[in-house]
Specification:
The protein is 24% helix and 24% strand. With 144 residues, the protein is of the alpha+beta class. The strands form two sheets. The protein has a four-stranded antiparallel β-sheet with strand order 1-4-2-3. It has a two-stranded antiparallel ribbon with strand order 5-6.
Length: 144
């Protein structure tokens, strides 16, 4: 019998246990564009050093097991990720075709919101110092 894969958060921090790099953020601050890796990579000090003078979560996207109720974005009653829900509700789709993604089958956002989440994912930057209002509101844990 094979193990059931863990549900992954696609907006994890690099220091979360078993975090893996699955995408690189390029583009511009006004229009980020995520490039997805063919295969998620283990987080190593050498990999984190590649971020240079900025925080790794500004230029890399990490996935790690969803921490559920330990996360401020998780709705305990609904057992849902509000960040995924609000990203779909508040931000525009930025791609028509779903990007190739190495974590999709285990991604919390995909499992919960389906293709709508994937059409918005390329604009997501985990640490974004200049988010547009919809992105800021989606990330705000005080707005439901």
């Amino acid at each position: 019998m094979s193990a059931v894969p863990e549900t992954l958060c696609p907006s994890a921090q690099p220091d979360w246990p078993t975090a893996r790099l699955f995408a690189v953020v390029g583009g511009t601050p006004d229009r980020p564009e995520t490039a997805y890796l063919d295969q998620a990579q283990a987080v190593t000090p050498e990999l984190l050093d590649l971020a240079g003078p900025v925080a790794p979560a500004e230029v890399f996207r990490f996935a790690a097991p969803c921490v559920g109720t330990a996360c401020g974005h998780f709705d305990r009653g609904e057992h849902r990720c509000r960040l995924a829900e609000k990203t779909v509700r508040l931000t525009p789709a930025v791609v028509d075709l779903l990007p190739r993604c190495s974590i999709r089958k285990t991604c919390r956002w995909w499992q919960q919101e389906g293709p709508a989440a994937c059409r918005r994912c390329p604009q997501v930057v985990t640490i974004n110092y200049a988010p547009k209002p919809p992105q800021r509101d989606a990330a705000d844990t005080s707005i439901y």
